[in-house]
Amino acid sequence: xxxxxxxxxxxxxxxxxxxxxxxxxxxxxxxxxxxxxxxxxxxxxxxxxxxxxxxxxxxxxxxxxxxxxxxxxxxxxxxxxxxxxxxxxxxxxxxxxxxxxxxxxxxxxxxxxxxxxxxxxxxxxxxxxxxxxxxxxxxxxxxxxxxxxx
Length: 150
Description:
Layout (H helix, E strand, L loop, with lengths): L1 H32 L4 E3 L2 H20 L11 H29 L3 E3 L1 H40 L1
Antiparallel strand pairs: 1-2
């Protein structure tokens, strides 16, 4: 039991560190593209901004559970995923604007904020799609194993 708990906390720490570092690299990359897109006063503030951004990416993707709502009419079923994605992005951008105001040592310009938000949304969608793909493969494998035992 202790071994599994230690392994879980180790993997969680490695994952948080990896994605915080990746988001920090995106911020520094935007700064490298144009120093007028983001003003950075300290490396600590970049890591803090990245950690706060990562902390929101998880609830942002959990908002995709809205897709589980039953929609009866065909036109609404077609439009609903796009509305749901637009809602996620709007809430995330509002969070980033508030974060940009709260952490004053990392200051994005308007174009820099749009660039950062787009990069984060794309990165979150890719990671979430890969996680879903892996979960489907694992579920299929477990189903095949249970059927082969019977």
